[in-house]
Amino acid sequence: MATSVTLATTCFHEILNLILNGEFSPGERLKGEYLKQVLQVGSSPIREALTRLAGTGLVDFRDQTGFTVATISKSDVYDVFKTYAKIECLLLKESMQNGDDVWEGNVMGALYKLSKVEAKGAISLYTEWAIRNDEVHDALTAACG
Question: I want to staple 67 with a disulfide (CB 3.0 to 4.6 A). Which of 19, 50, 81, 92 is the partner?
Answer without folding.
Answer: 50
